[in-house]
Design a protein that fits this description.
Order of helices and strands: EEEHEEEHEHHHHEHEHEEHH
Radius of gyration: 19 Å
Strand content: 15-25%
Largest sheet: 6 strands, mixed
Structural class: alpha/beta
Shape: globular
Distance between the termini: 30 Å
Number of helices: 10
Low-confidence stretches: none
Strand order of the largest sheet: 7-8-9-3-10-11
Number of strands: 11
């Protein structure tokens, strides 16, 4: 399987009062046309990894890498204009909550169509047709009605489907989904994941799924990277996540609650042991 993205020694660095701080600390990985999960607690560096791939590390932070290549394009040395040509067209990112990602004063159809207007020469009629098609592809029953709505007029689950439609309307090669289901209830979460899985399989995309939910990633991904303190501490096949050997991964698995759990207290990670194992 040829790699869509290859990353070697990626660091995301922010200046501080006592010198620079790396929140991502020299990680290396690759992504093919597959579903790659990145898991870890808050602050582990997983979201910053996704933002680095998109050229979206907020200032004054910066991404530094020995090698960060997408389909022959050197992302580590790409300027903002170059990233703008890639974002949406070939690299896309689905964020956690559509309330903060969609423009509240622009109708949904117009927002999705903006990517087509920027990256293609499609006519207004053709853009409308493609937007309606992609709304149908994310299983929205009445695309014509949703096309005319404002973001506040749709539910959280519908808003997340709109976000996915916006990210895939140009059929990108890679989609990065950063906690795309954490704000949704269980039944809607499964529907959204099924939509993403279907799109990835049918369109041959590469997917990076960033999440806290180990069970979800084990079910929906092919491979899993486990991040702790800005580093990748373990990599395994998603179906074998329960057999992980690193103390951090084992600690995360042990602290996951279950409906039939009889324990009064969930285990707490032993940070001292984790420091010794790095």
């Amino acid at each position: 399987m040829s790699a869509l993205i290859e990353v070697e020694n990626l660091r995301v660095r922010f200046p501080g009062d006592h010198g620079p701080t790396d929140v991502v600390r020299g990680i290396s990985f690759s992504l093919g046309r597959e579903r790659l999960g990145i898991v870890g607690e808050s602050g582990s560096g997983k979201s910053m990894t996704g933002r680095a791939l998109m050229g979206l590390v907020p200032a004054p932070g910066r991404a530094i890498a020995d090698r960060m290549v997408f389909d022959g394009i050197d992302l580590a040395r790409l300027d903002e204009r170059g990233f703008r040509r890639l974002r949406g067209a070939r690299l896309s990112m689905v964020l956690q909550d559509p309330k903060f990602s969609l423009n509240p004063v622009i109708r949904i159809g117009e927002q999705i169509g903006e990517a087509l207007a920027f990256h293609s020469r499609a006519s207004r009629r053709e853009r409308r047709r493609r937007v309606l098609d992609v709304l149908a592809a994310v299983r929205i029953d009445d695309p014509e009605r949703v096309y005319r709505l404002f973001p506040h007029e749709v539910s959280g689950g519908m808003g997340q489907r709109v976000m996915i439609a916006m990210m895939v309307v140009l059929e990108p090669d890679v989609m990065i989904a950063d906690e795309p289901t954490s704000a949704l209830d269980v039944s809607v979460r499964a529907q959204v994941l099924e939509i993403m899985d279907d799109l990835v399989r049918r369109r041959g995309m590469g997917l990076v799924l960033i999440s806290h939910d180990l069970e979800m990633v084990a079910r929906w991904c092919d491979r899993v990277l486990v991040m702790y303190d800005g580093r990748i501490v373990e990599e395994c096949a998603a179906g074998r996540l329960a057999e992980a050997t690193h103390p951090y991964t084992k600690g995360l698995l042990a602290s996951t609650p279950h409906l039939d759990d009889a324990r009064e207290l969930l285990p707490v990670l032993d940070r001292g042991a984790l420091g010794a194992s790095r």
